[in-house]
Design goal:
The chain has 83 residues and is mainly alpha-helical. Helix content is 76%, strand content 5%. The protein has a two-stranded antiparallel sheet with strand order 1-2.
Length: 83
């Protein structure tokens, strides 16, 4: 397996460190927002059930929308800076 990450946009691949940074930058505000919104609705549930609900919402949002969008924005910014 090569040292390059599988995520490529155009001719440039993001490093694992960049993917980790982008993922964290998306995950932290998303988790915080979901906790804020869900707390009044699920605050009485046991922690494992709250975690199950949070992750059931968060993972699809991250995988299908938030991370791909953030990676596109990141690579566009990197390309613009290199010009």
């Amino acid at each position: 397996m090569s040292g390059r990450a599988p995520t490529q946009t155009g001719s440039q691949a993001l490093s694992r460190n960049q993917i980790a940074l982008v993922t964290w930058a998306v995950a932290y505000p998303l988790i915080t927002s979901l906790l804020l919104v869900l707390e009044p609705l699920v605050g009485e549930l046991a922690l494992p059930l709250r975690t199950l609900l949070l992750t059931a919402l968060m993972v699809p949002i991250m995988v299908y929308w938030a991370v791909p969008t953030a990676i596109r924005l990141w690579t566009a910014r990197v390309r613009a800076c290199r010009r």
